[in-house]
Amino acid sequence: MRLGLYLNLYGTPDERPRLADAVEQAKLAEQAGFEWVVLGERHLHRPGYHEILTSMTWLAAHTSRIGIATAGIVAPLYDPVLLAETLAHIDVLSGGRLTAGFVLGYRPEEFALYGATQAERVARFEEGLEILTRLWTSDEVTYDGKFTSIAEAYLSPRPLQSPRPRLWNGGRVSAVLERTARMCDGWTSSFNELDADLPSKISEYLSYPLGPSSLGHEVILCREGYCADTSQAARAALEQPLRDLYDAYTGWKRTSTDASRYTQGWDDITARSIIGSKSQCADRLAHYTELGADGIVLRIQPPGMTQSDALRSIEAFGEML
């Protein structure tokens, strides 16, 4: 099983965010055999949140082999030409280690900050990814769209990977699954996707035809994860930091249909996660392999968890690889 480590880029109310901890985790994950370090994106977070693109560059500079992935960039917020150029250069600087994962976004205040609306997000997403993909793979691009028009445009340098870096897309509704097959190369689940819902969603995603530029179907499951000597030790390290994060999500996701999942109890969380002793986590990894996962992204460190606890869990998961 290929594992990804979802890095904590949050700050806390009493200090500025520090990327040094994320670098230390990324180096350990690389040594332990993880496939990717994975970054998310957030804006208008008052305590602090590291900007995703510059953080990717910083992590690439401090590692040598591990993949640098996102899950995901809120694509409708970006100028697609600038995003294509920046991500292409990250792929070049990292030696071809980029996987670019995208999402539609859901926070009204983030759309307002960037001068977009939620009503436009699907159209902006599809137009933006088409421009990005064409710029990555074509010598020259002319495009006249609803939001962006370019004439005889090209990137130099283009991404190092050939024909291009892989694209992921996250979401849970049928339209997202179809769009992922048509425009991207891998589907990333939500961290709170119920295990009972995964077989039907994976099957549906795999049933949709691939688009002309797709590199294939890939199923990447995002899961809460913590591995310790015992299930009790795992709970002691993870429960309160994760509960604090979920409490924050109930506010951020007030307009989202899955907001109620962040008020669930510990047993509900563990039922859709990889949390416990080494043997329990190994069984859970095998379970997701049987469901059809090609990779699993683990969120090990919610805000508030100590660095030492996070490092111990990364090492424990690495012993399974």
Automatic annotation (TrEMBL):
<keyword id="KW-0288">FMN</keyword>
<dbReference type="InterPro" id="IPR011251">
    <property type="entry name" value="Luciferase-like_dom"/>
</dbReference>
<dbReference type="InterPro" id="IPR050172">
    <property type="entry name" value="SsuD_RutA_monooxygenase"/>
</dbReference>
<feature type="domain" description="Luciferase-like">
    <location>
        <begin position="17"/>
        <end position="294"/>
    </location>
</feature>
<dbReference type="GO" id="GO:0008726">
    <property type="term" value="F:alkanesulfonate monooxygenase activity"/>
</dbReference>
<keyword id="KW-0503">Monooxygenase</keyword>
<protein>
    <submittedName>
        <fullName>Alkanesulfonate monooxygenase SsuD/methylene tetrahydromethanopterin reductase-like flavin-dependent oxidoreductase (Luciferase family)</fullName>
    </submittedName>
</protein>
<keyword id="KW-0285">Flavoprotein</keyword>
<keyword id="KW-0560">Oxidoreductase</keyword>
<dbReference type="InterPro" id="IPR036661">
    <property type="entry name" value="Luciferase-like_sf"/>
</dbReference>
<dbReference type="GO" id="GO:0046306">
    <property type="term" value="P:alkanesulfonate catabolic process"/>
</dbReference>
<dbReference type="Pfam" id="PF00296">
    <property type="entry name" value="Bac_luciferase"/>
</dbReference>
